[in-house]
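User: Could you write out the 3D structure of this protein bound to iron/sulfur cluster? I've included everything you need below.
Assistant: Certainly. Input first, then the structure.
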Amino acid sequence: MLDQEKLVQTVLSCGAAKAEVITREQIVTNRAFWDICEGNGCGRFGKYWNCPPAIGEPEALMAEIDTFSRAVLYQTIGEIEDSFDIEGMGEVGVSHKRTSRRIHNTLPEIMDGTRFLHLSSGGCDLCARCAKEENKPCRFPDKILKPMEGYCINVYRTTKGTGLKYINGANTVTYFGIILFEETENG
Ligand code: SF4
């Protein structure tokens, strides 16, 4: 039986700045975000197993999200020198990935058999060079975290009405993760 409050507390204890339970209705999806990935601004499209198009077509990904009834949305907030501090943004991004990894490692036990989908942000950093570039299978398929945007989630609109702000003040950067789960009678 899943204890949702315990899940939130676990996410916070793993390093997230804020976390809260939201309903499926609060999660806004739009295939335009998959299309942005396809625009390949980050240079990762088609090169990583955890990113589009390897994770599936947008309609299938949105349909998968529809199979869950609730989620825990969480965020990492970090300070940067100014809006041009790319290095600082990268450091906060690495910190967020570590937090997501710690959370991910706790999930098999805390979810207690509840079906779930854990998404984070950005590309996979588990290997120096993704096996996809060599046309080989993913080396750690059970450990990879797929990006929320790649799953067509509009993160900005999903934060509306929650206690998690999309922007957290001047000289800060914020990254998000989400654990979707299937609510049952017992939890
Ligand atoms: S674990 Fe390695 S092979 Fe798999 S997606 Fe990540 S970088 Fe690629």
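Residues 4-181 form one domain.
User: Perfect, thank you.
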